[in-house]
Design brief:
Blueprint (H helix, E strand, L loop, with lengths): L14 E6 L3 E5 L4 E4 L5 E7 L2 E5 L2 E4 L16 E5 L4 E7 L1 E3 L5 E5 L2 E5 L5 E6 L11 E3 L3 E6 L2 E6 L13 E4 L3 E6 L2 E6 L4 E7 L1 E5 L3 E6 L2 E6 L4 E7 L1 E2 L7 E6 L2 E6 L4 E6 L1 E2 L3 E2 L7 E7 L2 E5 L5 E2 L1
Antiparallel strand pairs: 1-2, 2-3, 3-4, 5-6, 6-7, 7-8, 9-10, 10-11, 11-12, 13-14, 14-15, 16-17, 17-18, 18-19, 20-21, 21-22, 22-23, 24-25, 25-26, 26-27, 28-30, 29-30, 30-31, 31-32
Length: 306
């Protein structure tokens, strides 16, 4: 009944399992399940031992396996039906996960993804034991980033065709660009797949909130959030993160700092400690350094203070 005490669905000889605003009522005759729409019409007669929503007006069905929390059974297969009870995809899947789009499936020795209309986007043979844990990523709602057999490929969402004939060793997604690895060298592409940086780095990864660590020929550098170089890749060492706006850098067993703003205090000290507030000095933010067998203090300009 609705709020006005009028029947939405008139009494019938079915139990209602649950209600879904898109599907209607999942009903049971005591043995099997079907669907009644919001007008009270039986659109799928009870005939399945299990039925769930796949997407709007599509349902996945299979025989119930009470011992399987993940809807995975080697004997029974999952299929997709429409609101008329017609199979859109014949029962052939061992598992379908509708928690995250695109919907992941297992079919025998391969896995893949379905769109909301139950169209198969990709089928990928298992190459590694944990292949199924790889999610498909999206880029700017234009491209699929897909890992297949230990390699990665980019597909156009419009036609599900590969954008490039080449396979990448790896693809990593960032806020508004991707890094791609080819022949062990890393480059950067924008959301339209234009090269921002051609593959040349040995390492590229996020560093703090607004920077990226790079490595080239075993030397370390930094890029800012706009991918501009603020620290040329010529250093041997960089600390784990910025502390009070500065991070340690090292070259030829000498140490210095770089600030988040790109300000560099060139490596010249035998050892350095992090910058911290010290009210004993006019320049409150100072760092302790070891140089010439003495411990001294420097300010954020790299000048000695007393």
């Amino acid at each position: 009944m609705d709020n006005h005490r009028k029947w939405i669905v008139k009494p019938q000889n079915y139990f209602i399992k649950y209600f879904d605003k898109d599907m209607g009522f999942i009903i049971s005759d005591g043995l099997h399940y079907g669907v009644i729409n919001m007008q009270g019409k039986v659109i799928i007669k009870p005939q399945y031992e299990e039925i769930y929503k796949f997407s709007n007006r599509l349902y996945w069905v299979k025989k119930e396996d009470e011992n399987d929390d993940y809807k995975l059974n080697t004997n029974d297969k999952i299929g997709i039906i429409n609101e008329k009870g017609e199979f859109v995809l014949e029962p052939k899947f061992d598992y379908i996960n509708t928690d995250k789009y695109p919907f992941k499936f297992i079919q025998g020795a391969k896995y893949g993804f379905l769109d909301e209309k139950a169209r198969i986007l990709f089928e990928i043979n298992f190459a590694y034991e944990d292949d199924f844990n790889n999610d498909i990523l999206t880029l700017a709602n234009k491209y699929w980033l897909v890992q297949k057999k230990g390699e990665s490929q980019i597909f156009d969402m419009k036609n599900n065709q590969a954008v490039f004939d080449i396979f990448f060793d790896n693809i990593a997604r960032y806020d508004n660009f991707i890094s791609v690895t080819i022949a062990n060298k890393i480059g950067v592409m924008d959301e339209n797949l234009n090269w921002l940086i051609l593959p040349k780095f040995d390492e590229f990864k996020r560093f703090g909130k607004n920077h990226y660590k790079i490595a080239l020929d075993n030397k370390i550098g930094l890029l800012d959030k706009n991918l501009h170089t603020i620290l040329e890749p010529k250093y041997d060492y960089i600390g784990e993160n910025f502390i009070n706006g500065f991070v340690k850098i090292g070259l030829n067993d000498k140490y210095g700092f770089i600030g988040e703003n790109g300000k560099i205090i060139e490596p010249q000290f035998d050892y350095v400690w992090s910058f911290e507030d010290n009210w004993d000095f006019k320049d409150n933010m100072v760092a302790k350094v070891f140089t010439g067998k003495e411990i001294k203090f420097i300010n954020t300009k790299g000048e000695f203070v007393e």
